[in-house]
């Protein structure tokens, strides 16, 4: 769970909350398999992906602004570390997207 704090709680905590909601909807869908549940899981999964990418873009804009302020003289190790941290939120968003899609596939295959 350390990656949540490393990736920035402003974006990672809502992504974690979205994952929990998707899991709850999947459990609900196992009992009451409706088209509304499928669409909601798909929408939340896609939102998670886009929200993670938004976190990366906002983080990189801030980082590039800081680099411009200090004159562009930055160590490659610092830059690589920044990219690593910046890529945590889109990666988590992609994982949530894939989990949501997997849940939708499972629910669709169980539908009569």
UniProtKB/TrEMBL annotation:
GO terms for biological process: protein transport. The keyword Repressor does not apply. The chain crosses the membrane at residues 12-30, 42-63, 83-107. GO terms for cellular component: plasma membrane. InterPro entries: MotA_ExbB_proton_chnl. Residues 32-98 form the MotA/TolQ/ExbB proton channel domain. Its main location: membrane. It is found in: Cell membrane; Membrane. Belongs to the exbB/tolQ family. This is MotA/TolQ/ExbB proton channel domain-containing protein. It comes from Polaribacter vadi. The lineage of its organism: Bacteria, Pseudomonadati, Bacteroidota, Flavobacteriia, Flavobacteriales.
């Amino acid at each position: 769970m350390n990656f949540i704090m490393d990736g920035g709680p402003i974006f990672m905590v809502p992504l974690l909350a979205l994952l929990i909601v998707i899991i709850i909807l999947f459990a609900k869908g196992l009992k009451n398999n409706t088209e509304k549940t499928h669409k909601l899981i798909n929408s939340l999964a896609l939102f998670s992906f886009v929200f993670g990418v938004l976190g990366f873009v906002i983080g990189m804009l801030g980082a590039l602004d800081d680099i411009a302020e200090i004159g562009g003289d930055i160590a490659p190790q610092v830059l690589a570390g920044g990219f690593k941290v910046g890529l945590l939120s889109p990666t988590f968003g992609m994982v949530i997207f894939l989990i949501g899609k997997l849940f939708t596939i499972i629910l669709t295959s169980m539908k009569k």
